[in-house]
Amino acid sequence: MGHSKTNDDGDSDPLDKHPSTLGARLSNLLFGASSILGFRLAKSNPLSLKAYVPKAKRASSLAAWPVLHLADSDWIKHQFESHAPKLLIYCHAVCDVSKCEANPDWAYDMNVQQLHRVIDALPDATRLVYISSDHVFGGDGDYTESAAPCPISIYGRTRVAAEQAVLKRKNSLVIRPGLAIGSSTDGRSGHMDWLAYRSQRGLPITIIEDEYRSVVWAGDLAARVMQLSESAVCGLRHIPAAQVISRLRLARYLFQSMGEPAHFKVEHRDEQPAPHLGRVGLETGYTDAYSKPLRSVVSGPLPLKKGD
After folding, report:
1. Is the pLDDT assigned to residue 1 strictly greater than 90?
2. Residue 58 CB contacts under 8 Å (≥ 6 apart), including other chains
3. Residue 88: which domain range?
């Protein structure tokens, strides 16, 4: 059976059409709409977010969105002068751990220096929401916002450095999610589409069995991110999941839900050339409306809808 497109909210998807027709009139900006979370945010909020994508990401699903030029300080300044944004959600980052390990200077430039240029040009009145990662941790543990970062990769270290820059700014928020599962822009990236793409073509698949994450649906995560973005919350917030699950359990669940044969090789973290997380569970020290754990991907019901 082929791979069905995911309705990763778990409900009907009335906004599953191309956004951006009103982009020129929007005062809220989204940098990084090609990530799994960024793509879902853009699709779910076409009337409130003007989406931008990296130059290297030119899938047909992104054709109508403008391209980011974050190496150009004048371009960044012009965007803010033109749109006078009330809110900037920053989802942009290079998340490929292996590439970051191979070229640390490039990783730092992409994930930290580009953000610094944005912060330098951003009007004081604009709220900044930076989407970080659970890769600021690495070893086994359940981590709240008060836990000290302990990254085990170059990628994780760039995330810590980026967070530090944001946390120095007023009217700003750092959000740390775990692993988001949802539709990708090209149909072959992101964990779910990657599994389906490789399975359908008989390509090798390796699953790391001793990596555990707080895994949530991208639609649920996008809704929580928008709630926090539109709130007055500043500082640092984690997005916990109802369960911390292994990559192995996740892969089996997704293969079953997609109707794909579960043919893959299982390996351990210490057999890999690049660092892999251990058991990293995100918890929160807060008890307000934004702190409730999101449902785990494996908790069901399956948010898959054939024919979409």
Report:
1. no
2. none
3. 23-299
